[in-house]
Design goal:
single chain; mainly alpha; 62% helix; elongated
Length: 151
């Protein structure tokens, strides 16, 4: 996986924000710090991950009921539900958590990433990534606890 470093100055960022607002159908073709760091191909991958996570979550629920497993096993729903929470957000927000943590973005072919040089932009991406991780964990925890306390 090749990584290239690029620099985005305030003028370029302003232009990308203006263009994004001008043509909302093209919004996933521009890097916006803390808001959007993946393009069409990466978004498709996040959509597939979200769909897989919802199928897995439902499968776990069905299996636990079918097997009449001990109630404590219901808490295992936390794992696929957390995955669902994070995957759905990545698809919805057009923002990859891993890319945000690493300080890269991709709007081209799968596997090509570009580094973020500005510390402020990197900071915004990390904040967004951790917000998504924490909200995914909270979602998974709430879903697992609801499932646990069901009769």
């Amino acid at each position: 996986m090749k990584t290239k470093a690029i620099s985005i100055n305030s003028e370029t960022l302003f232009m990308s924000l203006f263009q994004e607002n001008k043509n909302s159908n093209d919004s996933d073709n521009h890097y916006i710090p803390g808001a959007c760091n993946i393009g069409h191909e990466e978004i498709k991958r996040r959509k597939k991950a979200a769909i897989f996570s919802i199928v897995l979550t439902i499968t776990v629920i069905v299996l636990i009921f079918m097997l009449d497993a001990n109630k404590i096993w219901r808490l295992t729903l936390f794992i696929p539900a957390t995955s669902l929470g994070v995957s759905f957000q990545q698809w919805y927000f057009k923002f990859c958590v891993a890319f945000g943590i690493k300080g890269v973005f991709n709007f081209g072919d799968i596997g090509k990433t570009f580094s973020i040089d500005q510390k402020e932009n990197y900071r915004k991406d990390r904040i967004k990534a951790w917000q998504m991780i924490i909200s995914g964990i909270v979602f998974g925890l709430i879903l697992a606890l609801i499932f646990y306390f069901m009769p």
